[in-house]
Amino acid sequence: MDESKVTITVNGTARSFLVDKATTLLEILRDHLNLTGAKEGCGYGKCGTCTVVMNGEAVRSCIVKAVKADGASVTTIEGVTDGYTLHPIQEALIEAGAIQCGFCTPGIVMTLHALLAKNPDIPDGELKQALNGHLCRCTGYESILKAGFLAREKMQKHAPVKA
Ligand code: FES
Ligand code: FES
Predict the structure, then answer these.
(1) Measured in Å, how far apart are the chain's first and last C-alpha atoms?
(2) pTM over cut 0.90
(3) Residue 8 and residue 11: Cα distance in Å, rounded?
(4) How large is the average pLDDT for residues 104-122?
(5) Starting from the edge strand earliest in sequence, which strands make up the sheet with 51-54, in order?
(6) What's the confidence (pLDDT) of residue 45?
(7) Whether the Cβ atoms of residue 44 and residue 62 lie closer than 8 Å to each other
């Protein structure tokens, strides 16, 4: 099978891989880099468990082909903190009671991470719409939404003051 070399910067470190055209970004992360925070749920872009941030946008890594990620900068849940402290978005999910089994949690964190980095004042409707795309079998949508609003509040405190 034809293989091509791709280079992807993952959590700040550039890494190169030989991939075929079917290889997904999720496979690179989980199988090649052992970054297992991004989960495979549906495998076809519908549940959000595999979400990571690529070039500043939340993407579903199960449907991003590795060849399309060549040259990209990717942040995974493992890259949002130093591993010893919680990110304010992670704190928000805990405080809102939005975590039970945790399978959906990394994807939700990464979606909020991308959205709130771009706009810490994101309107309610946009926030709700983004979170609506994440399936959770445990906690229900209400607590996840509450976490989203709390994360926005926390990130507003971290945002640079506008001139
Ligand atoms: S596993 Fe990627 S969206 Fe469901
Ligand atoms: S906390 Fe279990 S799937 Fe969301």
Answers:
(1) 55
(2) yes
(3) 10
(4) 97
(5) 13-19, 4-10, 73-75, 51-54, 57-60
(6) 97
(7) yes
Select from 30, 67, 32 the least CA-distant residue to 52. 30
Q: What b/e sequence results for 117-128 when a residue is b if at least 16 CB atoms lie within 10 Å of its CB, and e otherwise?
A: eeebebeeeebe
Whether ligand 1 lies within 6 angstroms of the CB of 107 is answered as no
Per-residue pLDDT, 51: 98
* pLDDT of 127 over the 60 cut: yes
Cβ–ligand 1 distance for 106 under 6 Å, the answer no
Ligand at shortest distance from the CA of 147 = 2
Residue-level pLDDT at 30: 98
Ligand located closest to 104 CA: 2
